[in-house]
């Protein structure tokens, strides 16, 4: 699944680069100020709430809301930051970032498969505050290069790992925000015990986020008690019976609202 998505992405980016070369919009890029990282670091607990309408395995998810409506619900109920899909396998598009940005003051992570430095410039141009870098699809050289380009643009990177090998590779880079993905991107199955298994190998220098498969307040609480700094949640929020209430519950830090 992952290989297939990445192959398509390479083709897509090649077309995009021809249609809209970097030289056309580079001068319009306004440098960011790392507010995604700052927002997370200054709170005792972070909920990164994902505006997710579909997934490659499940198709359309169970929500009646648009990305912007979800963003508004998350914002009103204590989320720390938002994640916005821009890849078409998730029914995303680049314009979603601008649309969501117009309805919320929260920092925004662009959720996509970054495989070319061009996409990093494009992310900042579109208004993202952070990008996702997936260690499984990048070489060490690419990771270092992309971290550098992002830093130059004032963009934060959430660097995603799923295995111990990836975690150890990432910890040799300048990555500050590291996400342990509980979803195996080869099979798309989730298991939050992946975070508990990898945590002992995390250096104290990184800010640790647990991603995917977090279904309810109890999962959130277990991860919080284990010492992760925050969680990234999509389906658990989008498919909740009461999205606002679930956002509030997952945003709680030791029983207190922390936003
Ligand atoms: O909906 P979930 O299980 O809460 O997962 C959200 C998020 O972590 C997931 O969308 C994700 C994390 N890393 C990815 C990489 C590619 C695609 C999707 C993802």
Automatic annotation (TrEMBL):
GO MF entries: indole-3-glycerol-phosphate synthase activity
Q: Which PANTHER family match?
A: INDOLE-3-GLYCEROL-PHOSPHATE SYNTHASE, TRYPTOPHAN BIOSYNTHESIS PROTEIN
Which pathway, per its entry?
Amino-acid biosynthesis; L-tryptophan biosynthesis; L-tryptophan from chorismate: step 4/5
The family database entries (CDD domains) matched by this protein are listed as: IGPS
The UniProt keyword set, sorted, is:
Amino-acid biosynthesis, Aromatic amino acid biosynthesis, Decarboxylase, Lyase, Tryptophan biosynthesis
Write down what this protein is called.
Answer: indole-3-glycerol-phosphate synthase
Q: Which reaction does it catalyse?
A: 1-(2-carboxyphenylamino)-1-deoxy-D-ribulose 5-phosphate + H(+) = (1S,2R)-1-C-(indol-3-yl)glycerol 3-phosphate + CO2 + H2O
Source organism (scientific name): Pelosinus baikalensis
Q: What is its EC number?
A: 4.1.1.48
The organism's taxonomic lineage, starting at the top: Bacteria, Bacillati, Bacillota, Negativicutes, Selenomonadales
What Pfam families has UniProt attached to this entry?
IGPS
> Entry's Gene3D superfamilies?
Aldolase class I (3.20.20.70)
Domain Indole-3-glycerol phosphate synthase: residue ranges: 2-249
Q: Does the keyword Transport apply?
A: no
Superkingdom of this protein's organism: Bacteria
């Amino acid at each position: 699944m992952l290989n297939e998505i990445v192959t398509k992405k390479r083709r897509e980016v090649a077309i995009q680069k021809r249609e809209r070369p970097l030289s056309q919009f580079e001068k319009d890029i306004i440098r960011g100020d790392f507010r995604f990282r700052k927002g997370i670091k200054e709170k005792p607990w972070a909920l990164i709430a994902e505006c997710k309408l579909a997934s490659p395995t499940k198709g359309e998810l169970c929500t009646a809301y648009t990305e912007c409506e979800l963003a508004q619900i998350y914002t009103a109920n204590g989320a720390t930051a938002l994640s916005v899909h821009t890849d078409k396998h998730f029914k995303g598009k680049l314009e979603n970032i601008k649309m969501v940005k117009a309805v919320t003051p929260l920092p925004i992570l662009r959720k996509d498969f970054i495989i070319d430095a061009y996409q990093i410039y494009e992310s900042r141009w579109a208004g993202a505050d952070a990008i996702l870098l997936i260690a499984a699809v990048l070489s060490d050289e690419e990771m270092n290069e992309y971290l550098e380009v992002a830093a130059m643009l004032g963009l934060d990177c959430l660097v995603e790992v799923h295995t111990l090998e990836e975690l150890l590779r990432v910890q040799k880079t300048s990555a500050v925000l590291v996400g342990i993905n509980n979803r195996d991107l080869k099979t798309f199955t989730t298991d939050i015990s992946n975070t508990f298994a990898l945590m002992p190998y995390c250096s104290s220098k990184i800010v640790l986020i647990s991603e995917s498969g977090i279904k309810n307040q109890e999962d959130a609480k277990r991860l919080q008690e284990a010492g992760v700094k925050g969680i990234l949640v999509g389906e658990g929020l989008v498919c909740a019976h009461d999205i606002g209430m679930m956002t509030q519950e997952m945003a709680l830090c030791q029983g207190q609202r922390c936003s």
